[in-house]
Specification:
459 residues; alpha+beta; Rossmann fold; 3 domains; 6-stranded antiparallel sheet; 3-stranded antiparallel sheet; 13 helices; 11 strands
Length: 459
Amino acid sequence: MATVLEELRITGLGVIESATLELGPGLTVITGETGAGKTMVVTALGLLLGGRADSGAVRSGSRGARVEGSLRVADLPQVVAAVDAAGGEVEGDSVLLARNVSAEGRSRAFVGGASVPVSQLSDVAEPLVAMHGQSDQHRLLQPRAQRDALDAYGGEETALLLADYRALYVELQETERELAEVVASARERAREADLLRFGLSEIEAVDPQPGEDLSLAEEERRLGHADTLRTAAESAREALSSDEGNPDALAAVAAARALLDGVREHDDAAGELADRVAEVTYLLSDVAADVASYADGLDTDPSRLAAVSERRAALTALTRKYGEDIDEVLAWSRASAQRLFELDDTDDRTARLRAERGDLRATLGDLAATISAARHDAATRLGDQVTAELSLLAMPHARLAVSVTCHDDPDGLEVGGRAVRFGADGVDEVELLLAANVGADARPLAGRPEGTRPVQVQP
């Protein structure tokens, strides 16, 4: 199996002016006399993992120290994702991590060429490298690592329970976010609903019909010029077919037809022209009748004109606010009615979200209790097994215990009749406790903050 850390380059750190350490598969041993720089290699690795920067470690006469590490991440998609999230780049199968420490104590971190906070460098690198000192295992001092170790020991059953729990936890977080958004925006939503109701009531009072603004505009133009239109129509009808015996178009065309009919027997072409003129006669007769009907149908009612103008004014008032024309106004009305339904559903939605949150929390509480039970069982077995191994390591009186506890929280999950703090990994805090000698109390590997009192959840 290829090593994750392929190369370590150190510049200006302690007794090391410049050094490059290439690592390969298997075991690499660094030996040397006191002062050769072995400790500086470990210090460099600690800096690369996000450890505290100490300006005193900068080489005398140097402006600063720099540590670079090339990590092979081809088979570590979660690390590649973390590098991408940090804004860095993976080149080929490797990513370059770097840490600069100035002689004044300032520190800068880099992931894949991107400048990042030291904490983000630690998030990327720390899970990949385990550092063992003379008296401890640094990663195992972290509470999360201790819990992960216990869960890994618990096997597939614990892994499946945690997968179900985490999926529900994400769903609960989303539900609570949505609920908080609905509650926080209640005032704005009420204001929006009032505006929509006012607009819809205005439109409902006018009750516009599709295309009504265009048809009324045409009718108003016609009514406003009714006298002029009638005079023109009557004059046109008289020119086409006179009631007073005056010369008109029909009489002229009839005369032309009679002349051509009179010579039809002398030439077939003249007959064809006579037939075509006959068609014109029929057409003129129809047009004359239509013009007469149009003139008779023209309305000069002033009250109708006033009503049309008033209606158009009402429609124009709507188009000034809600759309370019009545069709757009009606579209706005439909969309606003749907939006108002959604806004009016806020109370019901809030109630539904709260009920859903309650159900999710109850299910999570039950699942968390099951996970806690599995962890308690695994903790007992792990403690016994490690204690047996310690005996084989010439520590016959040493004893390892695994403590699984939780902490009270009034806003937490209901587990075993108690509200306890919870997160994405459940409700449990896991501690490895070691009693090295006979009669010694088991003590946390990482120590315990003063004043902390964990509460054990009974499975």
